[in-house]
Amino acid sequence: MTTTPSSTGTPALQLSNIEMHYGFVRALDGIDMHVNPGEVVALLGDNGAGKSTLLKVMSGAHKPSHGSIRVHGTEHSFSAPSDASSAGIQMVYQDLALVEPQDISTNLNMGQETLRRGPLGWLGFVDRKAMRRSSEAELDRLGVRTAPMTRPVEMLSGGQRQVVALARSAIRVNGESQGILLLDEPTAALGYEQTKNVEALIRRMADAGIAIVIVTHDLPLCYEVADRIVILNRGKKVADVPAATTDRDHVVGWITGSRASMFDAAPAR
User: Are 195 and 158 in contact (CB under 8 A)?
Assistant: First the structure.
């Protein structure tokens, strides 16, 4: 079943009434959420709030028990991460999923290698020079400066590895129809300067029209890059607010449960 976008303001990714059941346990309870092209949404919550489960639903790793997922207005049913990837959604996991012995260029082109022309290409030989040239052009477009393309990933710093993982996903979603990036704790275990480099890259990707969802425990990162904050508590959405006008004490209150959900039903009169 497919539907078509009804307006030019169609969200890049829209979740409607998402539920996830594990037996009698309801990990997600009626979640509505969206992210627009060029918008950064921070998804916050304490451990066990449902953030990781919701991220896995968005990325196709988990199929929801109920609800619908729309990408640029078209309804999708994801049965595997490859389905989400085909729809324009890329996930950057906390472990980055890089092949450390291989160089930067190889990692950036993983699964999308450029083959050599002629008989060698028919036999599966890749054109490493062409891949390096295209990788450098893509990184220049994103404003990224890393080590030389021939340097193995295992020789990079933590911040450089994170940049490579982000750039690889950005390259894959940055086509004619801007895609969606899902980031799981993108600055975990990074120092101050490395974190600032990653923050700048995230904002550049958003400025290029990519929709970004970030799961993080890092409130300074959230306020540095996010346009909007969505907060989960025990599997329910308790807040959905602009970052620029939201008090940090309110955010902490929603995360811990000491502040009532902004979606609680009004008391009966």
Answer: no
Query: 186 near 92, Cβ under 8 Å?
Result: yes
pLDDT grade, residue 55 (50/70/90)?
very high
* Closest-CA residue to 14 (of 65, 49, 57, 45): 57
Give me 64's structure tokens. Answer: 């929801």
Q: Specify the pLDDT at position 8.
A: 46
Strand, coil or helix: 127: coil
Distances (CA, A) of 53 to 18, 100, 236: 11, 28, 12
Distance from C-alpha of 142 to C-alpha of 167, rounded to nearest angstrom? 8
List of domains in the chain: 13-98+178-256 (3.40.50.300)
What Å distances lie between residue 236 and 70, 124, 212, 241, 268, CA to CA?
20, 49, 21, 15, 22
